[in-house]
Amino acid sequence: MKKLIVCSLILGLVLGIASVGSAEVKQGDKNLVISVGYGYFSEGPKEWDGTYGLGMGFFLTDAVELNIGLSGQWNTFGDEVNLLVKPNFYMDTQSKVNPYMGLAVGANFGGGTEFAGGAQIGMKQFLSENTLIQYELGFLRLFKSKLNSLTLSIGLGFKF
Mind listing the domains of the chain with CATH numbers? Predict the structure, then answer.
């Protein structure tokens, strides 16, 4: 599984760099992104594990997106889920590559509910007017149990 995820990330990066699509995002746009990745977790059955995510983004302005999403680890699939609200701030929204940075706040549901917070950087790269690849490096901390995670993910998204 680890090799499959790493190969998918590399393939996505190569395809994304080679893409010729162009698009722009603007206030009112929405997007849905399904992602997979790999991450380091400070505790748990495995320190390294695959991740999954599903997020819905709403552009409040041309440069500010509010993303609401679910994420988790493969080895705890269904047992632990993060529900996060992530405001992302974009540096450029008028080209095929849209880099961003943002914050994450929300809750982790598993063995009890606890507050989670973190940050992320990434980019959305358009393959066509409405199809994109999203790359993201994220950090998340569970405050009650003092657990940390660092994840790298790639996602396929659709703008509408």
Answer: 2-159 (2.40.160.20)
Residue 19: pLDDT band by 50, 70, 90 thresholds? very low
User: Helices H, strands E: what count in the chain?
Assistant: 1, 8
- Burial, 10: exposed, middle or buried (Cβ in 10 Å; 0-12, 13-18, 19+)? exposed
> What would the pLDDT profile of 108-142 be if each residue is shown by its tens digit?
987 788 999 999 999 999 999 899 999 999 999 99
| Other Cβ atoms closer than 10 A to 151 | 23
64 by DSSP, 3-state: which? strand
d(CA 85, CA 106): 6
Cα–Cα nearest to 57, from 37, 29, 36 = 29
Coil, helix or strand at residue 109: strand
- Contact assessment for residue 12 and residue 154, using Cβ atoms and an 8 Å cutoff: yes
